[in-house]
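Standup, Tuesday
Yesterday: got the pipeline producing structure tokens again.
Today: sanity-check two examples.
Blockers: none.

Example 1:
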Amino acid sequence: MPKALEHSATSWKGQALKHNRSILDRLDPRLRLLFTSVFALLVVAANSLGVLLVCLATALTFALLAKLNLRRTLRRVLAMDLFVIFLLFMLPFTTEGTPLFEVAGFVASVEGVQHALFIGLKANSTLLCLLALIGTLSASTLGHALAYLKVPEKLVHLLLFTVRYLDVIGQEYKRMRRAMQARAFVMRANRHTWRAIGYLIGMLLVRSLERSERINNAMKCRGFTGQFYLLDNLRLTRIDYLFAIFSCGYLGALIGAILL
């Protein structure tokens, strides 16, 4: 069962949640990364309502094919849409253009409403595509795919170490919080609470630094020289070639629609 990044953005342990395998899991991760990157760039560059609706429909199709957990996906999308809703209320009144309606002396413009709508469509399309094609990759698979695509090794190492040790840091934080609670500490809006939280963050950074030094020494004792060797031999299959043909045709049509 893959430990997919879609299941948790903060905890390695949380990534062990069940993920039903789909047809997208059979695709080469390098193709999924390339398609998502180009798709996101084109979505950002699009300025047509019809094109953005097509992009949103494509992202929704990928989300259905990926068999994403409906509740978790909606929770993530709604968390982002709360910010988009704020823009939807603010942009019409802060963007100059053709007046649409007036509220308490503030005039909303057609261009502002259109701008807010476009931002919402772009954000949702990009997020759904990321969750479907990239979020269902395991951390190690994503790291190998990035390495095969010649992403700088330091960035790949940083990604893998971050995902691996986020849960370790989280457990350290929970232990320190329990120790504070055992001493009857209760958070309040006062100077003592802020000082205690500052000490907590400082000690967490100190302990994280100490743990990183111990991990570095342990890896050196095992012969680590700063290079990870790629163990996954990624090869393109028939379904990958079919997806590549579809991607080239779809993205080419999308580019043509944007330029028109």
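Example 2:
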Amino acid sequence: MQTFMGYERADGTAGIRNLVAILPSVSCANPVVEAIAREVPGVVPLLHGHGCGRGGCDLPGHSGTLQNICKNPNLSAVLVVGLGCESLSAARIETVTAVANRRVERIMIQEAGGSGKATARGIEIAKELLAFAATQERTPQPIDKLIIGLECGGSDAFSGITANPGVGVASDRLVKMGASVILTETTEMIGTSHILAKRAVDEKVAAQLVAMITNQEKKTQQVLGPMAKRIISPGNQDGGMSCIQEKALGCICKAGSSPINQVTAYGEIPSQKGLIVMDGPGYDTESMTGLAAAGAQIIIFTTGRGNPIGFPFVPVIKVVSTSKVYNHMKDDMDINAGTVLEGRGIESVGDEIITLIEKVLTGEQTKAELNRQNGILCLYTQTTAF
């Protein structure tokens, strides 16, 4: 796979989906966004619970994440809906997106004369943007425009020996082909900094990895005290996991063995190719939002307990760790890595993942897409509200 059929965007990126999104700049605009989406089938509402009442690093962090969300290649165009008195600027989101040569429009509820008038105008704009999207066509795109995000959620004791290593095989092959792969969830790297640092492309990246993981470990100790070594969910424990180090050793398997070329902030678009590590939380929906903001066109999500959640405009491939869960939740899971426990080789799991990626690139829907497991945008929050 040297190329894929994608929708080339004006900024040089390429999407594998061709969607129109409606993004509220603040949660107060969610009802108008929902009203527009009800009247215009085919648009994607990007609901979230943020946009105001926060300070510190959260406000610029949330703003930057939403700006990068608007630039994700899977989106052909975006309508930003603001209220008019929020902290997070809808005008700023529009400007940054437009500067990146991406199609974007904006309406403000207070300026429009209220929610009814804003909804009516939003319906008109959404239809115009759908007509614009319909003019876009798939063309051959080089594989180096492809970014794959890696995620795990609802892990169990088998995740680290079936699903995650299987994804690791696929990750190495994708990097070798020229694609980029992003590993995130810093909390779930605690205890592995010495392993990841050895894979860094240079000393600077190694130091960044160690600092990133050390900083996250300090935060967990401040919040959880003596319980910091556990920080795993009840489902993880029920699935046979004992501590965060055990989960972390399985988590990093998703990134295979390729050199780590860059460390990025949450939601930051990488400037390098190959394997990237993004600083981010272990909470699945926050983590996936960061991967989408970083430009990922596909997310590979491993699970042991069976987490069906997807993402509004990024196809999510579910790789499950056991045949038991796969057979029990077959409508939600895409790939059964549990057959490794029955004698199947890890390499063949990687083969199956690559084959499915090739199909998804050309339009085949994942189980999460078919089931409309879209979820919502969930932005990484590091400070308390005021």
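Quick observation on example 2: The chain has 14 helices and 14 strands. The radius of gyration is 20 Å.
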